[in-house]
Amino acid sequence: MSRPQDPHRPFLPFGNPFRMILPKSSYLSPKLIALLNTFEETLTERLKKLKPRDREDVLSLSWMRFAIESLCGIHTDIKTLITALELPVCDWDDKWIDVYLDNSVKLLDICIAFTSEISRLNQGRLFLQLALHNLGGDSSKKSVRALSSLDGWRQHISSKNPRLDNCFSIMDSLTQTLDLPKIKNSAKGKVLMRAMYGVKVVTISLCSIFAAAFSGSAKKLMDLQAPNTCLWAEAFADLQTFVNTEIRSTCSSGRVTALKELEAVDASAKKLFPIVQNEVDPIEAEMLQNPRSDLGKSEEKLSQGLDLLAKEVDNFFNIILTGRDALLGNLRIGGNASDSVQNNKVEGQAVR
């Protein structure tokens, strides 16, 4: 799926991991096969539902919120599978645990970076609100203040968040753990590793999409490839191709941002700027009303979208955090992984 102008890493640099996870000689009981199939079928349906109906929906805040909501569901699904497998933590290979804990820290860092960017965008709205307030007055001083606020918005929105750059390096390191270790003498371990593999591929892909959307650059957008042995591979490829193609098209057009609601606000602000710059007099005031109204509506839509997205990112953060804490707790007491999942919600509330 990589394009000549945007070369990127395929996700299988070390060969097919399933030759190590599920070799031909391995045996899975009908129960384990059913559990794995149920997990992968559910993942497939989530990916199909996540594909936007229209190109205009790509990178809208509502779609991004749904994407994070889907990620929350996928990570909850893996916990449900662990419960069903009844695989004690003491039976987990040390390498599985190390990789899981390392990956969870990286995902928490990515969530923090996304939260930071959402907060930065929300701070930019203060310039818009001040501009709208001053546009309601008749004095020339208020027009000057409105102009200053609009200019402040323009500078703020074109600035970059250094934490987003860190996201790309984190995701690069996450791809290095996609080549999973050989599983010996553990049918349940094989099922768990294959399911976790699916979760990681989808998580990295969606986080890559978010980082590209927030940064306004598709240069490091990832094109991951899943083997056809995965039931969800086709749905994943379809979703990734559709979204990544639209992101690259949007970013190559020279727009300030790839986010739809942010783009609408920026367009409204640009319409107002030259009008206010010419010092509107009472006769010309009517021509100011429509752009001002458009800016107010688009700013309100942006505000609502950012608030809802921030809540979903926070929810995803807590799912990762409580899952990590539950595993660590069970390692200390030598408990069962399924017990950690059952107590996850209670522990999550304690963390909050």
TrEMBL record:
Main location: membrane
Keyword Transport recorded: no
Compartments, record wording: Membrane
Keyword set, alphabetical order: Membrane, Transmembrane, Transmembrane helix
Membrane topology: Single-pass membrane protein
Recorded GO CC terms: membrane
PANTHER family: BPS1-LIKE PROTEIN
Family from the record: Belongs to the ROH1 family.
Name the record gives this protein: Protein BYPASS related
Organism: Forsythia ovata
Lineage of the species this protein comes from: Eukaryota, Viridiplantae, Streptophyta, Embryophyta, Tracheophyta
